[in-house]
Write a structure and sequence with these properties.
The protein is α/β, with parallel strands linked by helices. The chain has a single domain (15-167, 243-315), classed as Alpha/Beta hydrolase fold, catalytic domain (Rossmann fold, 3-Layer(aba) Sandwich). 36% of the residues lie in helices and 15% in strands. It contains 10 helices and 8 strands. The chain has helices at 15-25, 72-83, 112-125, 138-149, 168-175, 181-201, 217-228, 234-241, 272-276, 304-315, and strands at 34-39, 45-51, 57-62, 86-92, 130-136, 156-162, 254-257, 281-284. The chain has an 8-stranded mixed sheet, with helices on both faces. Helix 9 links the parallel strand 7 and strand 8. Helix 7 (217-228) crosses helix 8 (234-241). The longest helix has 21 residues, at 181-201. The termini are close together.
């Protein structure tokens, strides 16, 4: 367990404000990517956005649900890492780069195979001294799942993740509550747009008939995520892709930061017991921060989460 120094600005302590303000109002103008497309063995592609400054260390940043490398929280982290001696690879999940992917499969909380592919590819581009994983929300769950379940590349030395729904069932149920109805509706609209795009690429293989009947993630995962990706149903998907049971198996220094007022995270998403059982894992639970928030106002346009990541990757605490 770790104490936190984070204190929100005046009038920004509310979890919903912390969650909503950054995507609406934060701008990070000084990040410029070079995009690279790589092919996958199943006949698809992944789009990678590189921010390289000639450093010897690489951070791999994984975004959240329906995010991409151009979201403010990703670009803010990219700039902070670049400024502190890291090159950055911010990758886009399938269909998240602005173009629908070519296969029926898409992305979900457990796509560790795609994460493995981009890590292996990154190693071919440079003789990195070390690699770190940085993940937000779904990308945080994915990073923890990779570290605890897969054969981890020895170049990966540290990881830091934020706002992690490490228990997918309880998190999905929490987002479906009336207090989160605006978030739920927004996610479903965005996911619907992805389905419609894929219908054009793969006519007859997927459809959106009666999509309006889908009211929450269980409905969506039962209809799309589970059958497309080889799970029995939403419950099976949630159980197999939740990172929480794998946290005790993580073997590199890892920092998990989940704010207590995150509107998406119930008690089950604060892995206190799991972190205590593993000396490699530190759990930090600020009173405020919202979901991928941690707002700060300063001349550097540096959020607390970004400063904390730099500190952890530099000092390991």
């Amino acid at each position: 367990m770790s104490k936190t120094s984070y204190a929100p600005p005046p009038f920004f302590s509310n979890g919903h404000i912390q969650t909503i303000f950054p995507p609406l109002f934060r701008k990070v103008p000084s990040v410029f990517y070079k995009r690279q497309r790589i092919n996958t063995q199943d006949g698809d592609f992944l789009d990678l956005d590189w921010s390289r400054k000639g450093h010897k260390k690489l951070a791999v940043v994984s975004h959240g649900l329906e995010g991409n490398a151009h979201r403010a929280y990703v670009k803010g982290m990219v700039k902070a890492l670049n400024d502190s001696g890291w090159d950055v690879l911010a990758w886009n999940y399938r269909s998240c780069s602005g173009e629908p992917n070519q296969q029926l499969r898409s992305y979900h909380n457990g796509i560790t195979d795609d994460l493995s592919v981009i890590i292996e590819h990154a190693k071919t581009t440079h003789a990195w001294e070390q690699i770190a994983l940085v993940g937000f929300s779904l990308g945080g769950n994915l990073s923890l799942l990779y570290l605890g379940r897969e054969s981890v590349d020895p170049l990966i030395k540290k990881a830091i993740v934020f706002s992690v729904p490490c228990d997918l069932k309880s998190s999905s149920e929490t987002i479906s509550k009336p207090s989160n109805v605006l978030y739920m509706k927004r996610f479903l609209v965005m996911l619907h747009n992805k389905i419609k795009s894929k219908m054009k690429v793969l006519p007859g293989q997927i459809d959106d008939k009666d999509y309006e009947k889908i009211k929450d993630f269980k409905d969506f995962d039962d209809r799309y995520t589970a059958p497309i990706h080889g799970f029995k149903n939403a419950e099976d998907y949630w159980e197999k892709c939740s990172s929480k049971p794998y946290i005790p198996k993580i073997k590199i220094p890892t920092l998990i930061i989940n704010a207590k007022n995150d509107p998406f995270l119930p008690d089950a998403c604060f892995p206190i017991k799991e972190a205590r059982s593993n000396p490699m894992v530190t759990l930090c639970m600020p009173e405020s921060g919202g979901h991928v928030g941690f707002i700060c106002f300063n001349k550097q346009n540096l959020y607390w989460s970004e400063a904390r990541a730099v500190e952890f990757l530099r000092n390991g605490n």
